[in-house]
Write a structure and sequence with these properties.
Helix content is 78%, strand content 0%. By secondary structure, it is an all-alpha fold.
């Protein structure tokens, strides 16, 4: 009987949201124990463009990637930042990195690019905005990023350190 009641209440939560009684539906979904009902209600809320509520339910159901993706849609950067340690998707980390870069929050962008394993953008960020050439060199050596090696070579060339520039051009397979 308890399982039957749970199923009925989860249906009630979904239908409450669909029929416009969003508050009641969200409260019912929050009170239920299952993750699936939270996800289902969050999907409906997302379709209704209720991104904040959808993100909250995704987070309650421990669907962190979905919660962060919805927060990105809602431009709730602070909430995305809170969720990032639990997010596994490199795509979401990369999107957050682009947003932080546009907001001139370069350290946060660099961390996001590192978590996304987007080494080209990480190297560019380290060289162009954070003045961390040693870290950029380390990233290029570890990742074997071809574009990153070209950026480091260009950086050394501008400094007049042509020997280092040539080393990184060789690493990048750029034979010009």
């Amino acid at each position: 009987i308890l399982e039957h009641n749970e199923v009925c209440r989860s249906g009630l939560a979904r239908m409450s949201i669909r029929t416009g009684d969003i508050r009641k539906g969200i409260q019912l979904a929050r009170d239920l124990h299952g993750r699936v009902v939270k996800r289902d209600c969050a999907i409906i809320l997302e379709q209704l463009k209720q991104y904040g509520e959808a993100a909250d339910l995704y987070e309650l159901g421990q669907f962190y990637d979905r919660a962060a993706a919805v927060c990105l849609k809602a431009k709730a950067w602070g909430k995305v930042g809170e969720l990032l340690p639990k997010v596994r998707s490199p795509k979401i980390h990369a999107q957050y990195g682009k947003v932080m870069e546009a907001e001139k929050r370069y350290k946060e962008a660099a961390v996001a690019y590192r978590n996304a394993r987007d080494y080209d953008n990480l190297v560019r960020m380290l060289l162009d905005h954070l003045n961390m050439a040693e870290e950029a060199v380390k990233v290029v050596r570890e990742s074997r990023s071809i574009e990153g090696a070209k950026l480091v070579a260009k950086f050394f060339s501008q400094l007049g350190d042509h020997a280092s520039a040539i080393r990184f051009l060789v690493l990048s397979n750029c034979h010009q």
